[in-house]
Amino acid sequence: MIVILISAIVLVVLSFVIWMCSRYKKCPSDKIMVVYGSIGKNKDGTNRSAKCIHGGAEFIIPVFQSYAYLDLTPISIQVDLKNALSRQNIRIDVPSRFTVGISTEPGVMQNAAERLLGLQLSEIQELSKDIIFGQLRLVIATMDIEEINTDRDKFLAAVSSNVESELKKIGLRLINVNVTDISDESGYIVALGKEAAAKAINDAKISVAEQDRAGSIGEANAQMEQRIKVSEAESVAIRGENEAKMNIAMSEAALKEKEAEARKIATTAEKIQAAKALEESYAAEQAAEEARRAKEQATLEADIIVRAEAKKKEMELEAEAEAEQMRRKAQGEADAIYAKMEAQARGVEEILKKQAAGFAEIVKSAGGDADAALRLLIADKLEDLMKVQVDAVKNIKIDKVTVWDGGQNTDGKTSTANFISGMMKSVPPLDEVFAMSGMQLPSLLGKKVEEKGSEEPIA
Predict the structure, then answer these.
(1) In this structure, are residues 206 and 159 in contact, taking their beta carbons and an 8 Å threshold?
(2) Is there a domain that residue 385 lies in?
(3) CA torsion sign, 184 to 188 to 193 to 194?
(4) CB–CB of 224/282 below 8 Å?
(5) Cα–Cα dist 387/394, whole Å
(6) Percentages helix, strand, coil for the chain, rounded to the nearest 5?
C-alpha cells in the first residue's frame, strides 16, 4: 500500500514537472511569439498589451498568460495601378509588385502584435494592398511623368518612404519594390522614349566623333546634310500621305476623321521630338568643335612656352659659361700681373741690397769715414753732374741773335758776354741742387765766401 502511494506521488510530481516544462516555449526563427495576458505595465503606468519575442524563449505562466505566433513569411502583392493622375494631369498605368513582411523592429513588432495577431496571410495581404494603392497614387500625383519614367531611383525612393511609413503603423515593413513598366493612353511616355533613344544615338555619335577628331568633321557635315535631306524627304512623304489620308477621311465617317486628326497630332509630336534631337545633335557637334579648337590652341601655346623656356635656359647657361670664362681669364691676368710685380719687386730689392753692400764697401775702403766715402762717390759722378748741367742748355736752338751792342759795360763786359753768362746762370749751381736735396756740398768742391754782400762758389 505504501509503495502504491509513493508511486502515485512520484507520478503526480513527474507529471507536474513535465507540465511545467511544457510551458517553457521557444520561438522559431521564422516567427514572432506574442505573449499576452498578465504581462505588466508600461513606463507610463498603463497595462502592457503584449510581449513580442523573436529568436528566444519565454516561460508562459499558466492561467495568467497565453501565447500565439506571427508568421514572418514575406508576402508578395501584385499592385496594378491604373489611371493614376500625375502632376501634369496625365493618367498613367503603373504595374508593380511589392514584397512586405511583419517587422522584427521592437516598436513596429508591438504594432503587429496589436493589429495583425490572428489574421491570415491573405487578410494581411489585402490590408497592405489598400495602403500601397493609396500611397502609390499620392506619390504619382506629386511627380512629373519625366521624373517617374527616367529617374526610377527617385520614384522608388519616394514610394518606399511613403509606403513603409504607413506599413509600420500596422507592424509591417517593406522588403522590395519592383515597377515593371509604366504606360499612358496619350502616348506621352512612348514619345519620351523615342526622344531618349534619339538622344542616346546622337550622344554615341558624338562620342565616336570626339575619338576621331582629325577626320570626323567632314563626315559629320555629310551626315548632317544627309539627315536634313532625309528629314525633308520624309516630311514631304508624310505630308503627301497625310493629305491623301485626309482626302480619304473626308469621305468617310466621323470616326475616321477623328482617327486622322489623332494621327496628325502624333506625327506632329514625333516631328517636334525629331527636330529637338537634331538641334541637340548640332549643339553637341558645335561643342565638340569648340573643345577641339581649345585643345589645339592650348597645345600650340604649350609648344611655344616650352621652346621659349628651353631658349631662355640655353641663354642663361651660355651667359654663365661666358661669365665664368671671363672670371677665369681675369683671375689669370691678375695672377700674371701679381707674379710680374712680385718679380720686379724682388729685382728692385736685390738692386738695393747690392747698392747698399757696395756703399758699405766704399765706406769700409774710406776707413769708416762717411764724408770721405761721399766725396769718393761725388768725385766718381762729377763728370756726369757737369754733363747734366751743360745738357740743360745744349739743345736750345738759336737761329739768329741780334745784338745791339754799344760797347762795354761798367764791369768791362760786352752785352754779348752778359747774354751768354746769363744763360749759364739760369742753370742752378751745384750748391743749390744739394741744398734742395737737404745735403751740403762737400768742402773739396768749394765753399761760399762773402764778397760784396753775396756768396759765390770758389773752385
Answers:
(1) no
(2) no
(3) positive
(4) yes
(5) 10
(6) 65, 15, 20
Among candidate residues 190, 170, 86, the one with its CA nearest the CA of residue 130: 170
Residues 6+ apart with CB under 8 A from 383: none
**What does the H/E/C string look like for 2-43?**
HHHHHHHHHHHHHHHHHHHHHCEEECCCCEEEEEEECCCECC
Question: Cell triple for residue 210?
Answer: 570626339
180: cell is: 515593371
pTM over 0.70: no
The grid cell for 349 is 730689392
User: Where is the domain boundary, 151, 168, 186?
Assistant: 186
Residue 206 lies inside a defined structural domain of this protein: yes
Q: Are 51 and 25 in contact (CB under 8 A)?
A: no
What grid cell was written down for 380? 766718381
Is residue 172 packed enough to be buried (19+ CB in 10 Å), middle (13-18) or exposed (0-12)? buried
Q: Which residue, among 60, 94, 97, has the nearest Cα to 78 in the 3D structure?
A: 97
Helix (H/G/I), strand (E/B), else coil: 456: strand
Query: How far apart (Å, rounded) are the C-alpha atoms in residues 200 and 146?
Result: 16
Asked whether the beta carbons of 118 and 111 are under 8 A apart, the reply is no
Q: Residue 52 is part of which domain span?
A: 21-70
What size, in residues, is the chain? 459
- pLDDT means per 10 residues, the chain with 459 residues, are 82 82 82 83 77 82 83 89 83 89 87 86 89 89 82 86 90 88 75 73 76 68 80 80 77 74 84 84 84 84 83 87 87 87 86 81 77 72 70 62 56 59 56 59 55 43
The alpha carbons of the chain give a radius of gyration, in whole angstroms, of 67
Domains identified in the chain, total number: 3
Q: Is residue 367 part of a domain?
A: no
Long-range contacts of 222-227 (CB under 8 A, 24+ apart): 224/281, 224/282, 224/285, 227/278, 227/281
| CB neighbourhood size of 231 (10 A) | 14
Q: Is residue 377 within a helix (H) or strand (E), and if so which, with residue range? A: helix 370-394
Are 201 and 178 part of one and the same domain? no
The contacts of residue 146 (CB under 8 Å, 6+ apart) are: 192
* Planar angle of CA 404, 408, 411, nearest 5 degrees: 130
Residue 277: what are its φ and ψ, rounded to 5°?
A: -65, -45
Closest CA relative to residue 416, chosen from 426, 425, 406, 427: 406
Residue type present at position 433: V
Q: Give the number of other Cβ atoms within 10 Å of residue 162's Cβ.
A: 19
